[in-house]
Design a protein that fits this description.
The complex is a heterotetramer of chains A (340), B (279), C (149) and D (288). Chain A is an alpha+beta fold and 340 residues long. Chain A has 12 helices and 12 strands. In chain A, helix 7 crosses helix 10, helix 7 crosses helix 12 and helix 8 crosses helix 10. The longest helix of chain A is centred in the C-terminal third of the chain and has 20 residues. The chains are: A alpha+beta (340), B alpha/beta (279), C alpha/beta (149), D alpha/beta (288). The interface between A and C is small, with 9 and 5 residues.
């Protein structure tokens, strides 16, 4: 892998250039709530030590709410207008390994058979500039789902903080190489030994479970009190799903624009909501919170794996950190692991 | 460009409306766009998303037979926001349609076999599609039996067709209503569908059973069929789960490893048994 | 030089069926004139007026809202207006707090016999809303809702 | 803590209650989470400390617990306010709850923080119910509370001093982040409606899309539906992943209730609910 060095100052120039070249640069907000569009060098937060934001950056590829069609009423006729969807040149700057893979993982569901243009138009052109992660708390479990704080998986370019002023820039993919080409002037030659040493010093979070073992247990233990125990205290909000970098369920609703036109919206939805699966007849296949929590766990650690060969979790721990009632997904899955 | 907008509906026009029961209607729909109409084809058992602009979309199976390609029909019960809006529409109004989605009944493989159709309530709609498909190609199939039941006489759908099927000599049609649901001159059976299936006792040899109806009916009918000797692979049903996209994206209809909208809605009992009980 | 078009406010009026609506009727039959800027929405009772109505009115582009019903002790349902009054005391201040100026929301008691008062109230409300000018806050976020072709 | 475990054990073994809603240690010792103790063994796990932030009254309205008869609950003073309010609103029967009241020495504002003057929850700063108003057993002793500036109140004053337009801009910035996860609603002990107005579709008053327009209407209506009912536990704000200062809205409504009606929610079993009643002499100087 090719490696270069970029200084902090040059990184600012680089980002300013990107913005000038019509890239949409997205970075983590300094308040650590969500990700925002960077408008200038002053907004840059590339930090290997900061906590993952409350809400991941998936909203830039899979919007929390967006129109999928517009309709106009003309006498007895409806005109359907497709929303303009300019191909965006998104750049995710400073994505930790637990964020960097999110687009890749979600892209499987948005592209099996039918292809979701709204996702693809943003995802396909996006560049992920990852950063090695030096943050760790009890909720991190990236190693349990096949990632690590130092993995470049999912990133096109990968930053390793060398010292206060400099980053090593690893060129991971062909796309990344092509992308960085016009900005060579900000790079100097790197020395792989140093970044290797730094990366080797980063401690891995403890591995809490084996996904294959968990998946197998889930196959055989559909009914288990472990889910009901969580269901007892789960309040059924969507925090976990909405903060998650890979949760991708959505709702489709119509809303008015004005008196003769409207738009059909695609909105985030969550399997923890009681109304998610409620049938018109009043029948609800997942009528208790325990069953809904089981769906969440099984979808992440079994169904998605069976279907798309991918664990639907990056181990970022956002759902656990933010859960209003302290449900820790890693704890639950680790318990399953110990049962298996 | 990475493909077209998969959420964009095609405009259809309502050409006929039949009031099946007090709260159930059947629409006959035609594509407004000629070329769409020409290129459109579907198979028995597939479904579509029917939309009223400003209200939303709702999922129903295509209730007409693929052998009659000049139109599609759908039947629905007025329950929620979209179905209420649909109920208010009149002949000539527009409906948005996306589809066809999902898999289909193995009509090709059923050829040369006996077929038993068992349906309850509005569950006749998806079965009707296969019934007409079968009847339009009557010579390809052996014995055809239709067992249909509803809560009461007033809840029977497709009454005209039921009469037509009853009059036909080449098929056996049994219609039943739940006890207490009959009318004075009722000439059909009285009793729950599973009991009537047991009474009619279609032979299992070289036979495919297509079952659709409320969960409770399916639950009690399947043991009866198994007692009659039907193999699990020869009992076919179609599942209904709440759906929004119909494209295997929105995650609503996900049950176990399958998305009902993509991998279903048609499942054999053998497949269904493998799924978690979440439908 | 083109004269600037005069601002015609859109004012949604939620009025009770028994008093104010009848009062407005009386104004009409008495040939009293009142501004056409008022769009009247008849509800059974002021107690029926859910605060979401007001939000919806503003979302849809209202520049002001008038709520009017029976005088205290005159409610057709005995206590509807008392309950409503309590809700408005709270709701007005909430609107103010989130930045929807509560001086765009007007309240009045107009009985079935007060056709003249109705006209006066409408005139006053229209003038006050005109003074305040168009409510642009929602208009700004509604811009996102125009069809992009 | 031993007292608490012993009491819970006693209640569960002698059949007074089938479940005790309490706290147990979570992922780290500085975090707790709600727990439903059903056996004497479960009771051994219960804890009570400065990290017990959750308002457990939230679980009192759950059918599966109510069905079991009298429900035991570990409650701080502020949780008891919620219980009182629920009793007032006829959601919980006074005789169907056994309150293990805890003398409270303050809790942290967010899980995972050390308890100090910096991190003590806003609701604790001016707490008047450190000893619960209503309890069947009272445990623990009171100690001095650390003090800090009420930043929330300062922000409120700042907002009050702004013009309406500036306030709108402030809230527009805040609400823009809302993702409509409804954590605020689900974490609220008083949002017990079977079907929330935000979930109703015929007609749909509150747009379910998480754009600014939909977010404004949801957050305004949420605050209004809690006017005169919110007991100020600030669970909504804590639950919010977008960190919107929701408690400001509730607090404002509480201040209005106090000013206009001299009413404070959850403070007495004898006072009727605020919007469930009226007074002939309510202020009407804003009505023409």
């Amino acid at each position: 892998m090719e490696e270069k060095i970029i200084s902090l100052d040059n990184l600012s120039f680089f980002v300013n250039d990107l913005i000038k070249d019509n890239h949409i640069v997205i970075g983590q907000d300094s308040k650590e709530i969500n990700w925002k569009r960077i408008t200038g060098a002053k907004d840059i937060v590339v930090n290997s030590k900061n906590i993952p934001s409350n809400i991941s950056y998936k909203e830039f590829v899979f919007a929390k709410t967006e129109p999928i069609i517009y309709y106009k009423n003309k006498k007895d006729e409806f005109d359907i207008v497709e929303p303009a969807l300019p191909r965006q040149k998104l750049v995710f700057l400073g994505a930790k390994p637990c964020d960097a893979r999110s687009i890749e993982i979600m892209s499987k569901v948005f592209n099996w058979d039918y292809k979701d243009k709204f996702f693809n138009e943003r995802a396909e052109g996006s560049i992920v500039i990852g950063v090695a992660c030096n943050y760790q708390d009890k909720f991190c479990f990236c190693t349990s789902v096949g990632l690590s704080p130092v993995t470049e998986k999912g990133s096109d370019l990968f930053l390793v903080p060398l010292d206060e002023k400099n980053f090593a820039l690893q060129i991971v993919t062909e796309r990344g190489k092509e992308f960085i080409q016009p900005y060579q002037k900000y790079l100097s030659d790197g020395n792989q030994a140093k970044s290797k040493e730094i990366l080797s010093k980063i401690k891995n979070p403890e591995k809490r479970f084996e996904t294959s073992k968990v998946s197998e247990w889930l196959t055989n233990n559909f009914e288990h009190k472990i889910f009901d125990n969580v269901g007892d205290i789960c309040v059924g909000c969507g925090q976990c799903a909405f903060a998650c970098p890979v949760c991708h369920c959505f709702d489709i609703v119509d809303e008015e624009c004005d008196y003769s036109s409207g738009r059909r919206m695609k909105n985030w939805d969550a399997c923890q909501f009681g109304l998610f699966t409620l049938h018109g007849s009043g029948h609800n296949p997942r009528e208790t919170q325990g069953k809904r929590y089981r769906q969440r766990i099984a979808h992440k650690f079994k169904y998605y794996q069976d279907k798309f060969d991918e664990v639907l979790c990056t181990g970022c721990g956002r759902c656990s950190r933010g859960c209003p009632v302290g449900i820790d997904i890693a704890e639950v899955v680790a318990e399953i692991n110990s049962l298996a | 460009m990475s493909g077209s907008n998969i959420y964009k509906p095609e405009m259809m026009e309502i050409t006929d409306i039949v009031q099946e029961t007090s709260d159930t209607k059947t629409f006959r729909l035609k594509f407004k766009n000629e070329s769409t109409a020409k290129s459109f084809s579907f198979k028995a058992g597939q479904f579509g998303e029917y939309g009223v602009f400003g209200e939303g979309e709702s999922t129903f199976c295509i209730a007409s037979s693929p052998t009659r390609s000049e139109y599609i029909e759908c039947s629905f019960k007025q329950i929620g926001k979209v179905t209420t809006a649909l109920t208010r529409l009149r002949v000539g109004d527009s409906v948005g349609f996306r589809g066809p989605y999902g898999n289909y009944f193995p009509v090709e493989e059923m050829k040369g076999k006996n077929v038993v159709f068992i349906a309850g309530g509005i569950g006749l709609a998806p079965v009707r599609c296969v019934i007409w498909n079968t009847l339009d190609l009557r010579n390809d199939f052996k014995d055809v039996t239709i067992i249909y039941g509803a809560r009461s006489f007033n809840d029977l759908v497709y009454k005209r067709e039921l009469k037509e099927w009853k009059e036909r000599k080449d098929i056996k049609t049994v219609v039943t209503v739940d006890p207490g649901g009959e009318v004075p001159d009722w000439d059909g059976e009285i009793g729950f569908v599973p009991a009537i299936v047991e009474k009619v006792a279609p032979k299992a040899e070289n036979t495919v059973a297509i079952v659709c109806g409320p969960p409770i009916m399916i639950k009690f009918t399947i043991p009866v069929l198994q007692k009659l000797g039907f193999a699990e692979e020869n009992i076919i049903t179609t599942l209904e789960n709440r759906m929004k996209c119909g494209l295997g994206k929105c995650g609503r209809c996900n049950v176990g490893n399958v998305y009902v909208c993509k991998d279903g809605p048609v499942f054999t009992y053998a497949q269904m048994k493998e799924l978690p009980q979440e439908y | 030089m083109e004269e600037e078009k005069q601002f015609e406010p859109k004012i949604a009026a939620f009025v009770c069926n028994w008093c104010t609506y009848t009062g407005a009727d009386l104004a009409g039959t008495s040939r009293l004139k009142y501004s056409a800027d008022i769009k009247m929405i008849r509800v059974p009772c002021t107690g029926r007026i859910d605060p979401v109505f007001l939000i919806k009115a503003f979302e849809k582009g209202a520049d002001g809202v008038l709520i009017s019903g029976c005088h205290p002790n005159d409610c057709h349902y005995n206590t509807g207006n008392f309950h409503a009054r309590r809700r408005w005391i709270l709701f007005r201040q909430l609107l103010d707090f989130v930045g929807i100026d509560s001086s765009r929301v007007h309240f009045s008691w107009v009985s079935a016999s007060e056709g003249k008062k109705f006209v006066d109230v409408v005139t006053e409300v229209v003038n006050k809303v005109k003074e305040k000018g168009p409510f642009t806050r929602y208009a700004k976020i509604n811009k996102e809702f125009v069809i992009h072709e | 803590m031993n007292e608490l475990r012993a009491k819970a054990k006693e209640l569960l073994t002698n059949g007074t209650v089938k479940v005790v809603i309490g706290y147990i240690e979570s992922t780290t010792p500085d975090r707790t989470k709600p727990f439903i103790a059903r056996t004497a063994e479960d009771a051994e796990k219960l804890v009570f400390n400065k990290y017990c932030v959750n308002n457990l009254a939230l679980y009192l309205t759950r059918k599966e617990f109510r069905r079991t008869g009298v429900v035991g609950i570990v409650a701080k003073g502020c949780d008891v306010k919620a219980i009182v309010q629920l009793i007032q609103e006829n959601q919980v029967n006074k005789d169907d709850v056994y309150i293990i009241g805890m003398n409270c020495n303050g809790v942290v504002s967010e899980l995972g923080q050390d308890f100090s003057a910096e991190t003590i929850a806003t609701k604790c700063l001016n707490c008047s119910v450190r000893t619960p108003l209503l309890y069947h057993t009272l445990l623990g002793t009171l100690e001095d509370l650390p003090k800090r500036e009420d930043k929330n109140f300062v922000l409120m004053q700042k907002l009050d001093a702004m013009s309406a337009g500036e306030r709108w801009d402030f809230w527009e910035d805040e609400f823009e982040r809302c993702v409509k996860c409804y954590a605020c609603r689900q974490a609220c002990p008083l949002c017990y409606c079977e079907r929330c107005i935000a979930d109703k579709t015929v007609p749909r008053w509150i747009e379910s899309s998480a754009h600014t327009r939909g977010n404004f209407s949801w957050n305004i209506i949420r605050a209004f539906h809690l006017a005169g009912r919110c007991i100020g536990c600030n669970e909504c704000e804590r639950a919010c992943p977008a960190e919107i200062p929701l408690s400001l809205l509730n607090r404002k409504m509480g201040m209005v209730a106090k000013k206009e009606f001299d009413f404070v929610a959850g403070m007495g079993l004898d006072t009727p609910t605020l919007v469930g009643t009226y007074n002939l002499n309510d202020n009407e100087d804003f009505i023409k």
